[in-house]
Amino acid sequence: MRKAQLRAGILLSIVLVSSGCAFALNPSLDVSQYAHTVWTTREGFFGGTIYSIAQTGDGYLWLGTEFGLLRFDGNRYIPWQPPAGQSLPGNGITSLLAASDGTLWIGTYAGLVSWNGARLTRYPELDNQLVAALHQDHEGTVWAGSLGYPSGRLCAIRSGTVQCYGQDGTFGRTVLSLFEDSTGNLWAGTQTGLWRWKPGPPTHYAVPGTELNDLNAGDQGELFIAMPGGMRQLVHRKAEVYPKRGAKPINANRLLRDHDGGLWIGTLDRGLIHVYRGKTDVFSKSDGLSGDLIYSLFEDREGNIWVSTNGGLDQFRDLTVSTISLKQGLSSDFAWSVLAARDGSIWVGTGDGLNKWNSGQISTIRNSSGRLDDAPQSLYQDDRGRIWAFTGHGLAQVENSRFVSVSGVHGTKVHSIAGDKSGNLWLSETSNLLHIRDGRLVEQIPWSRLGRMESATVLLSDTERGGLWLGFWRGGGVLYFKDGQVRASYTSANGLSSGAVTDLRLDRDGALWVATQGVLDRVRDGHITTLTSRNGLPCDTVLWTMEDDERSLWLYTSCGLVRITRAELDAWVADPKRTIERTVWDAADGVRLRSTAASGYGPRVAKSPDGKLWFVTGDGVQVLDPRHLPFNKLPPPIRIEQIVADHKILWQNSLSDAPLNMRLPRLTRDLEIDYTALSLVAPKKIHFKYKLEGYDADWQDAGNRRQAFYTNLAPANYHFRVIACNSSGVWNEEGATLQFSIAPAYYQTNWFRVLCLLTFLAMVWTIYHRRVRALEQRQAILEKHQSEIRALNEQMIKAQEAERMRISGDLHDGVLQQITSLTLRLAKVRNQVQPNSEATATVIALQQQLIQIGTDIRHISHELHPALLQESGLPAALSSYCEEFSNVRGLPVKCRADESLNELSPGAALCLYRIAQEALGNAAKYSKATKVEIRLTRSDGRVFLSVSDDGVGCDPSQIGKSGGLGVINMRERVLQLNGSFEFDSEPGRGTRVKVTVPFRPAQ
Predict the structure, then answer these.
(1) CB-based contacts of 743: which residues, under 8 Å, 6+ apart?
(2) CA-to-CA distance for 888 and 725, rounded, in angstroms?
């Protein structure tokens, strides 16, 4: 894995060498206009002086300090230590070189080593020598220059062989600098002078002085020599002073030629000097540099310039938005209005006069008084190209670099100036709306006439429809004024945002854009739509808007400068509820952020003919070129930095990569994975996402956080992935990966789980068997009780049947005999009276009643003791009973009985007979039926009895509640026979009784 990464580093180095930096600094800017980050030794960073800087192919920055070697990712540094058993010749690092093959060459106070990512290689030829200079030529040879006693050396190292020169004292005690020019000449700066060492025989050039600290190329191919007492250049074999005599000598220590041709000079006492196309700029400790003594200069692969000084480390990088301030010639940093004239000049109103910027040159026009209240406020250019400014003296026209006042136009403050094609000027003065025509005041309109109590902060001419748009600060709101009247009004009452209006702009479609301290409103044909943070804006306070040449919309908000492309804007106009895609530049990109407008004067933003946007923030004037935005096209390399488990560092990326499958301790509770992305342009704007496969369902958005945290991970194999994008949004989708596993504790192993499962099953089996035994015991008790209950029921039935038979006998032998005797005696009485007398009729009636009573008693006796059942069996007895029941009750009964049931046991036959009797009795008493059907059948060892009627039916839930026990008695009889009983009835749908019992033959 290490070899693969070395190959990747070598490939990346080759790509960087061949293609240059991702983007370099804008060389036309002053150093103070770049983003400047400083790490000072006094604040505890690095802990010592940094003598040398290098960047390896993996993207890390290496810092050689007086106390050792540091590895820096732009966010934090890690002290580097060699592997166990290996060591550096000395702790003080004097020079560094990242070679094209990925090897890091390390020069120390006491010798030279190289690090290939796995081991150190020491070069004994330079032992006890201070390695002052390292350089790799175009052929791949590494050259080392040293300081030693009695003599310094120049050594060439290639393919593991070392050849040194100078042991004879040719170079004196020092070889301090090495440089290869564009034609392949190798130059060496030594104590004895300047040497062109190759190609060809070495050539010596006499140079005054003995400390030739650094070498580099000039603009015309000359050789620059950094040295104390005055920097020099080699022209026609002669070392001349640079710059020309008469200028202050440059005590130079280090030289750097960046990829845009700019020359950076690190001095011994004046800080940093930047030279580009004849323009010289100085940036020193008084400007914020960490120190005035420069030890090292370095340009990284992304075009950032690194400077190490006696006070710390400085970084300079390009900004999306640059600032023109007092240092660039502006008369005051307090700028409050900006105007882009049609001739390309930029006019800036400040507290110290009106500034004109033209091709980088700034001139200033001041009022004679020089007072702040006389300074220019709002600015305007009319259709004739005239520049107008309102100052403390009133309205003035700018002519020949001076103010020419307009008579009669006075006031205290004018917030905004607007004009139309007819030559009219409108001024938003504190008390009135002023109307100027042909340089004369023609009308003063009090604000109260427009229904307002304060002046408008923004004026905007409607060139298409004529008229004037006015925006107000207090209470907000927008008015449309034309021909002396307010034609339209937009306030919070009809949907406009209630915030103070900070800017108005009409787009090419005729829509009015209203920027407020609340949101951004768009007004078109009286319809208002609102763009807010709910639609994707980073914040709601919008101070101005501007459209660039590509018709993208730019918004200056309290949290940054926002760009919305035309396609995205059109999509939002079509659907105001959608979320927009936008790009934001903030303080890290050079934008000076404000929560309110920098001043009460306009305009605050302007677009120059070359498409650049100029705007004021109260701190100079800022400029942005939408067509040339810095863009870092290099995806950031990503590395896993360290793994921390339960607050203990298990592995660090200092010497080697993480193992292919790292095993974490058992019962790891808290896991922290640190990672980094190696983009040095704006490390705080790097965006990370990570995912732990096997745990995270999706990518986790970490923002700019460089740690991932996990708690209580289960024992398993895991695959961690992290990806990142640089400050320009370019993603490294491949990212970095880490495979690790967490070993299970004994109670988390499969065998332990199986053991627990078996134990659980054994417990369940034991509980089950105990439960079954208890149920069996309970069932036995229940069956015993049921048996006893059945025995009691049988005894009761036998007792009932005995009682029935006794009652039947009493009725038949007693009552029925007496009724018969009474009937015979009444017959004798009827013979004794006159046939046609009233007594005869009475006797006959009594005889009929007694005969009917006898019939009823005979039927009751038959029911109580069915003799036919014992004599002929159940089918015949049931059929006879149905026939007699029909005759007595007058209810037709259809009976079908299987003759094979004659063999049924007497007990079962009696039970079924009584159930049929009970069912017929219920039908006669309650059902109001017109017919009844009884079926008695046998099949598969079972007997089926069915009694159904077509009566009124009943609700089964009400059975037994009226006091009747017929259904209950029937069910009990069936239970005695171990059968099943069904009672099916619904109101209005008749009733059906169905009985099923086992067939029990007679013994």
Answers:
(1) 663, 664, 665, 666, 715
(2) 105
Best CA proximity match to 48, nearest among 65, 72, 63: 65
- Is it the case that residue 474 has pLDDT exceeding 90? no
Indicate whether 370 pLDDT > 80: no
Distance CA 500, CA 492 (A): 11
Question: Distance from CA of residue 971 to its chain's centroid?
Answer: 72
Please give the full DSSP string across 147-180, using - where no structure is assigned.
E-SS---EEEEETTEEEEE-TTSTTTTBEEEEEE
Query: How many domains is the chain partitioned into structurally?
Result: 4
Do 830 and 920 belong together in one domain?
no
Position 857 confidence tier, pLDDT thresholds 50, 70, 90: low
Inter-residue contact 300 to 20 (CB < 8 Å): no
Name the 3-class secondary structure at 411: coil
**Tokens 């199986």 belong to which residue?**
754
For 75-84, how does the pLDDT look when each residue is reduced to its tens digit (9 = 90+)? Answer: 888 899 898 8
| Alpha helices in 357-425, H assignment, sequence order | none
| 1001 contact partners, CB below 8 Å, separation of at least 6 | 903, 904, 905
Beta-strand ranges (E) seen in 840-973 are 893-897, 932-939, 942-949
Q: Per residue in 161-190, pLDDT tens?
A: 999 999 999 999 999 999 999 999 999 999
Q: Collapsing DSSP states into helix, strand and coil, what is residue 966?
A: helix
User: pLDDT by residue (tens digit) across 397-435?
Assistant: 998 888 888 888 887 889 999 998 888 999 999 999 999
Looking at the fold, whether 826 and 848 belong to one and the same domain comes out as: yes
Q: How far is CA 854 from CA 251, 820, 978, in A?
A: 154, 8, 39
Residues 424 and 538 in one domain: yes
CB atoms near residue 527 (< 10 Å): 10
- pLDDT at 5 (0 to 100): 41
**Of 228, 229, 191, the residue nearest 210 (C-alpha):** 191
Q: Which domain holds residue 718?
A: 638-748
Q: What is the pLDDT, as a whole number, of residue 404?
A: 87
- Beta bridge pairs of residue 298: 306
Please write the tens of the pLDDT for every residue from 689-715.
999 998 999 999 999 999 999 999 999
The secondary structure of residue 922, as a DSSP letter, is: H
User: Do β-strands 353-358 and 346-350 pair in parallel, antiparallel, or remain unpaired?
Assistant: antiparallel
Q: Which residues contact 752 (CB under 8 A, 6 or more apart)?
A: 746
The answer on pLDDT for 1002 being more than 90 is no
Same domain, 812 and 895: no
DSSP state of 925: I
Verify that 462 and 492 share a domain, yes or no. yes
- Is-contact 213 231, C-beta < 8 A? no
Q: Are 197 and 188 in contact (CB under 8 A)?
A: yes
Does the pTM of the predicted model rise above 0.85?
no
CA distance 197 to 536: 62
Is residue 316 over pLDDT 90?
A: yes
| DSSP secondary structure string for all residues of 458-524 | EEEE-TTT-SEEEEESTT--EEEEETTEEEEEE-GGGT---SPEEEEEE-TTSPEEEEESS-EEEEE
With cut-offs at 50, 70 and 90, classify the pLDDT of residue 557: very high
List, in sequence order, every residue forming a beta bridge with 713; answer none if it has no partner. Answer: none
Final residue belonging to a domain, choices 748, 782, 814: 748
For tokens 């749908």, the residue is: 989
Q: What is the pLDDT of residue 904?
A: 82
Q: How far apart, in whole angstroms, are the C-alpha atoms of residue 697 and residue 250?
A: 62
**Main-chain dihedrals φ then ψ at residue 385, nearest 5 degrees:** 85, 5
**In this structure, is residue 27 part of a structural domain?**
no
> Which run of H or E residues covers position 843?
helix 838-864
In a domain, 649, yes or no: yes
Nearest 5°: CA angle at 977, between 973 and 982?
60
Residues 6 or more apart whose CB falls under 8 angstroms from that of 939 comprise: none
